[in-house]
Amino acid sequence: MTASRLRGGAPVEDGDDLDVEEALALVREAKDDSTGPAPAPGARDARTDGPHRATPWPEAREIAARAARTARSAGARRGPVSVPLGDSLGLVLAAPLDALGDLPSFDTSAMDGWAVAGPGPWTVREEGVLAGHAQPAPLTDGEAVLIATGARIPADTTAVLRTEHGRTDTQGRLHATRDLAHGQDIRPRGQECRSGDQLLPVGTLITPAVLGLAAAAGYDTVTVVPRPRVEVLVLGDELLTEGLPREGLIRDALGPMLPPWLRALGAEVVAVRRVRDDARALRKAITASPADLVVTTGGTAAGPVDHVHPTLERIGAELLVDGVAVRPGHPMLLARIQDGRHLVGLPGNPLAAVSGLLTLAEPLLRTLAAHPAPEPYALPLTEAVHGHPYDTRLVPVVLRGDRAVPLHYNGPAMLRGVAAADALAAVPPGGARPGEEAELLDLPWAAAGIGVCFT
Questions:
Q1: Which of 158, 368, 390, 417 is 20 to 30 Å from the Cα of 450, by its Cα?
Q2: What is the pLDDT of residues 252-267, one digit of tens each?
Q3: Reduced to 3 states, what is the DSSP secondary structure of residue 284?
């Protein structure tokens, strides 16, 4: 018969080496780490004095970005990859986009009209020149030929006379109704670039316009920074995947929500797995994952089935952030696991998980993907927002002109507010008055960024 043993508030598996003194120390640590009422000003706070000090919210975001930079510089991430042009939207160039040839590659007509040679009036050649056809015969002085936009210019052409600027007389001769300059409406070869010119530098975000330029320049593939690979582990025996909540069970909101949200942040979601409340199963899932980032849901506190902390300790992970001074989402965490990979532990409450996603996962994924950090901005709030005495508070808002309107239903377990929101407002400790500016975190679909992809 074996005694029940605890590590960080979670059962320890039989066979782990743990003596009584170590067990008691870990139980004391778990108690010190538990969240409770905020201390009075000047009082000693176990949350900030203990080994798992809550990290200030801005610092936590910077730690996540710095962890990704360290992984990239250490070569822990995959190197640049070549992808088909059609699959590159939202990625970042890992090699310059250089001109493969002159653009345009031949003299072309910029307008529908006539290619003319010498001064008018002109005799019009019977057969016209269309785009995509071979080089037409040269023109002689006093000769014109109908030409389409994008068609090759015949040799010895003086200019292109637009359709609306020409008329023909009864003898069929062409006359200009406006002055015509030499070279008018002709796009000369190499006007946009010459072979070897750099069109776009490394680090350029591939937008639809970049796709068009690359295609025009003759690219079929581009060299890019690969999307970070993410695996989502949904933890909990209490979660249903269909139907109404019943018999103490609740619907899983995070399993459907996180994968498309992570894709909108630029990640490649390689798997979504459900893991029961079992330490061995969690350990196996984390260590077997091939992803650059493992995202877990729930299990980050110190309850009887909260296995994330003990599991990270057993596999030798390095805790970079263990609790953040933000509400909701205080018990989130960031750990560096083997081979430079990372784990973000999200709280189980849905809005708290959103807070963790934007606090830790977003800066880490953005930096791994080589995306630039968004420019910070703030807007005044239309009404007062209550704050936490010591922590930043993230509140869903909608944007109305140059103001942010706080939304209700913003409790840790609620998604009703964020489902209608454009952004989250970072409300400083103590709250915000009406008209006071608050920093905003855009939600990816509201920002209409290039990374928005929910498939």
A1: 417
A2: 778 888 999 999 999 9
A3: helix
